[in-house]
TrEMBL record:
<dbReference type="Pfam" id="PF13454">
    <property type="entry name" value="NAD_binding_9"/>
</dbReference>
<dbReference type="InterPro" id="IPR052189">
    <property type="entry name" value="L-asp_N-monooxygenase_NS-form"/>
</dbReference>
<feature type="domain" description="FAD-dependent urate hydroxylase HpyO/Asp monooxygenase CreE-like FAD/NAD(P)-binding">
    <location>
        <begin position="24"/>
        <end position="188"/>
    </location>
</feature>
<dbReference type="InterPro" id="IPR036188">
    <property type="entry name" value="FAD/NAD-bd_sf"/>
</dbReference>
<protein>
    <recommendedName>
        <fullName>FAD-dependent urate hydroxylase HpyO/Asp monooxygenase CreE-like FAD/NAD(P)-binding domain-containing protein</fullName>
    </recommendedName>
</protein>
<feature type="region of interest" description="Disordered">
    <location>
        <begin position="618"/>
        <end position="647"/>
    </location>
</feature>
<feature type="compositionally biased region" description="Basic and acidic residues">
    <location>
        <begin position="626"/>
        <end position="638"/>
    </location>
</feature>
<dbReference type="InterPro" id="IPR038732">
    <property type="entry name" value="HpyO/CreE_NAD-binding"/>
</dbReference>
Amino acid sequence: MIQPMLNKLSEATDRWSVMPERIAIIGTGPRGISVIERLAGRLAESSTLRSLVVYAIDSVEVGCGRLWRTDQPDWLLMNTRCKNVTMFPNPPDGAAWRAGYGPTFMEWWRQIDVNYPGPSGLAPRGLYGKYLKFVLDVVELNLPEQMHIERVRDRVTDIDEHAGEYVLTFESGRDSLRVDRLVVCSGYPLSKAKSASQESTPSSRHLTCFDVLETFQSGLSLPADLSGQAIGLRGLGLSFYDVLSELTLGRGGRFVHGDDGDVRYLRSGREPRLIVAGSRSGFPLPMRGRDDRPAGLGFAPRFFTETRIADIRAEGPACFRTSYLPWLTAEVNFAYLEKTLAPDRFDSFRKQLDAGDASTATIMPLMSEVAHSFGVEGLLDLEAMAAPFRGMSFPTQDAFRRAVVSLVRQDVARSEAGEFTDPVKAALNVLRFIRPHIRKAVDLGGLTHTSHHEFITRIGPTIAFLSTGPSLTRARQLLALIESGLLELLGPGASFRAKDGAGFVASSDAVENYSADIDVLIDAYVPAPNVDVDDNPAIRSLADAGLLRSFMGTGGVQVTAKPFHPVTRDGEVKDRIHVLGIPTEAARWFLHVGVIEPGVWDEFIDDADAIATAAIEKLVPSNPGPDERGSEKSREGATRTPNKYLS
Ligand SMILES: Cc1cc2nc3c(=O)[nH]c(=O)nc-3n(C[C@H](O)[C@H](O)[C@H](O)COP(=O)(O)OP(=O)(O)OC[C@H]3O[C@@H](n4cnc5c(N)ncnc54)[C@H](O)[C@@H]3O)c2cc1C
């Protein structure tokens, strides 16, 4: 009796060790590539009983994904300096490049391009796509023998959970795929709005953000027949600059430097007649300062520290505005004062501040009072900085134009001074450094329900607005386009109302006597992820089956802490699914990042590593515990505690 049972057991064990574990990575943008790199890196360090097949699936371009696809026009630029970008956690170690060890984006770019612009250069997005594909090639060429990668360029249209497996169906009709584990890193959502816009009559065309992402970032242009038309752009963020470039540079226009150093726009005649752009605040994103920060200089928070955040979080869900914002504001203003006061006076200021009684309630009044005694009136108010026209009204469009141009010029002057030197730019740069700290306070239940919603809808967007600015080049181009009369910015509270019959009317309640007739309206912003309405079929089928649910009604997919298993509608944790990046935005904060900071074991890589470690846990006889993860192999001088997170 016992022998047949033992035979059966040994057969099952053999089959278990022979059958490969199958993992589907849905989406091969930077997140997906990072997970694949980590799977290979972790497997290379382990001896496993089973092999692993990884299906790298992307509907647009396997290896880089749709945002970074390689055939897009060169004027679509990254917003991250090339020196701040890698996909390998360690530098080359003398042996072959492979998972774990390879060149940074900057090193790679320098090697392949005679026009490499230097460490602060902003690469065309398509070039970063080529680097991402190079990374996947390097990883695949040097895979550990028990791992195999299969590339699938197709759209996943359905996912069915069946008998312990996930069955994936594809748009092309190819055979369905059965896998043991899913990693969903599908990026920005898709929206049904596309079909609505397609149905619009040509005279009242409304191109939605879906169209912009799907067509414009897919290397295609916006419709070619926009010349002579009036275009409305809703949004003044990063996508606004993309669309603006497409409507000008993309149509043969040129920016030239005049003798006075100013930039002028030369029309090609193929651009629209008029571009009218607006947003709620009426103010374009502040620019990123010139890169004058000494190389290798780190940043250690003084007020908004990890310890303080951990202490507050240990008390249970908090209110961001009352518990955290004072410390964050103090951190920003401390940097502002450091650059405003002469070094010896700043030293005295710091000593006086340290001698005061600082608590959450008193830190900002105390800092203001001490700053006042050093002759500094009025500290930086982040919410006011993000809405400089709040409460203002303008008698004419000319008056508003003068006001906005004057503010943009001031911003350009600050940016030219440099993000290390100029007090305001140095202060706003702090917001970039402390993003990981903010996440520690906010992510996955750090705040009360009310505060989480306020953070996601107001405070978070304000911080992002002030700290994700485009390059100086884009600001100079913006001024040139206004100067040329091609671009008109609307005042605060811009609206684009559909006209009876055809077209739209653009105006701002804060600007009297101005409205513009618009032929085509473009939503120049990326849509916020929302699992409840996302029409991406992969997300939709998981959500409709109850396997995904929204976190606190925010639209972000509710996941556990690392390795990010979704929590089902019934509250069950799905430990063979991971959801990473953008789809979880709003449950976590500011996941719009597609790079690893060289020399730092940052959150981006740690997120991917956590998934890789969990995924191969069952394949490895004795798996290292979480504390040992990466300790030997992480980059020399890098710490596994994320201390920088730049994009
Ligand atoms: C215009 C723009 C510019 C940006 N610039 C920068 C920058 O300079 N630096 C930076 O750090 N971040 C930037 N970002 C932020 C961006 O979110 C990240 O860089 C990064 O692309 C996120 O990576 P991801 O892998 O999560 O998502 P994505 O890069 O969006 O990749 C997701 C992939 O999933 C695929 N996919 C989705 N659904 C399916 C399906 N059903 N079947 C098959 N495949 C599917 C998509 O085709 C896509 O390729 C930018 C974002 C935008 C919108």
